[in-house]
Design brief:
four-stranded mixed beta sheet, three-stranded antiparallel beta sheet, globular
């Protein structure tokens, strides 16, 4: 994978996300879910930011730096009522 393109979190509204899961194994998905839970705690307790790397519909990688405000079964909730589908996320740093 090439280096992800750094964008502002507000720009995710312009991105079309894949309909399918971008990770290939159940273990990778469970690991991502645990990392998202940690990032949620970091955001709520310390207002800390994380870097989320994700793919668009054409498999272009993007990265945003943001605070995670909430999680649902399907989405990551960001400040400004922005939603990022979990299925598109490759990594959390």
């Amino acid at each position: 994978m090439n280096q992800p393109t750094l964008i502002q979190k507000e720009d995710i509204i312009k991105i079309r996300f894949p309909k399918e899961e971008v990770l290939h194994s159940d273990l990778e998905i469970k690991t991502r879910d645990r990392e998202l839970e940690k990032a949620l705690l970091l955001g709520n307790l310390e207002h800390g930011k994380v870097k989320l790397t994700f793919l668009d519909l054409s498999n272009q990688a993007y990265q945003i730096e943001t605070t995670i405000w909430a999680l649902t079964d399907e989405s990551i909730c960001l400040k400004g009522d922005l939603l990022l589908p979990k299925r598109a996320v490759l990594s959390i740093i």
